[in-house]
Amino acid sequence: MSKKRGPIDFPLFITILILLSIGVVMVFSASMVEDYKIYNDTYYHLKKQILWAFLGIFAMMFMANFDYRKLRNKKILVFGMLITIALLIIVLFMPARKGATRWIGIGGASIQPSELAKMMLIIYLSDNIVRKGEKIKSFTKGVLPVLIIASFFALLIILEPNMSTTVIIMAVAFSLLFVGGAKIQQLAGIVLLGVAVAAVGIIIEPYRMRRLTGFIDPFKDPLDTGYQAIQSLYALGSGGLFGMGLGQSRQKWHYIPEAQNDFIFSIICEELGYIGALFVIILFVVLVWRGLKIAVTSRDKFGTLVAAGITSLMAVQSSINFLVVASFMPVTGVPLPLISYGGSSLVFTMALLGILLNISRYTVKNGVE
Fold first, then answer.
1. In the chain, which stretches have pLDDT less than 50?
2. What does residue 298 show for φ and ψ, rounded to 5 degrees?
């Protein structure tokens, strides 16, 4: 394959920047009340989000100019995997925050190893599937080894505990197997097994069962398990067609806890209305569409798989967030990519999108042979 590069996918690039800009504005709007109360600084989360946004842009531009094919280098893969596994183990011994051990404090900042795990798993499994070739059609030689690797990461993450990220990681692994050429019958069996495992995971953890029952009938326990779902629905209902106006949300006044995080889309619906919410959803649809197009037109299978993995991650994570906010799924801690407040989450998401932009430079459209 030639090392000649074409231009990046401009529609994808613009879509990413628009979503990032909306995220910065909405983080400020959603957090200003709590920030004034807790930190006596209305701009507390805004200043941090702007910093993370600039770091994310740097990570995106670096990866957009770093030949993605070099990620298959054995030293890079092994080093990245070892660092990721080490961080996933270390985080289990960190002090609990909000009932879970998901963050490692570094100075005044913190990092979520699970975010690095998403990136490394996509890259490593893509390389692994390419090397297997036609063996991927065999369950024992192709599918099973991939599942073992993904399940090992999932096990470390669910111990935090973080079931939502575990589900996302397994969904991405499934999408990579599908694009890589695994048999549909085998994948169908995996889905059924995954549903059974998820059901067991819910049953054995009382707090997950409470979330499930709270989802089925949130008004049965409006002050506990159904609280966030109900407040989110109030936000959606209050927004109407055109919204209450930017900065005019009522639910951010101590009703939705930490509105700048997982339920930021509720604030978008309330302040910008269904029109604003639809605009954000359309932007994610464009992002997924361009990602799939890059995957289809990539000149090598590794590029196709990595692009498909990144795109499926964006699609699954954003879909779960939308469904949770609208009470079509039990409440779970899944941030909205590029929109929700977050440090490592935003930076690693931008880095992944940078890789996607880099792959777009080596496509049929750009005439790279």
1. 1-2, 368-369
2. -60, 140
